[in-house]
Write a structure and sequence with these properties.
single chain; mainly alpha; 3 helices; about 0% strand; elongated; transmembrane helix; membrane
Length: about 80
């Protein structure tokens, strides 16, 4: 079975670069929003559960990890010719 090597289009690197910048900006915004929610709850006298805040931080971090791994995955899968026939 001969697998043809996938070669991404010419603008794929630029699109993935823009995606990485947007994911970084969304991650920073997400952490700011979680921090603002923590501050508002503390100001109201509702400390809230610690797990709720950590869950928000976890989801923001997981989203950033998934978005930032798109570029390396395309680069790694684009060079399948190393596997041989």
């Amino acid at each position: 079975m001969n697998l043809a090597a996938y070669s991404p289009p010419a603008g794929a690197g630029e699109i993935l670069g823009i995606l990485a910048w947007c994911a970084t900006a969304a991650g920073v915004a997400g952490l700011l929003i979680v921090g603002i929610n923590m501050a508002i709850q503390l100001n109201r006298g509702e400390p809230g559960e610690g797990a709720a805040h950590f869950r928000g931080i976890f989801f923001v971090t997981l989203g950033c990890l998934v978005a930032s791994s798109a570029g390396p995955l395309v680069a790694a899968l684009g060079d399948l010719s190393l596997l041989g026939p």
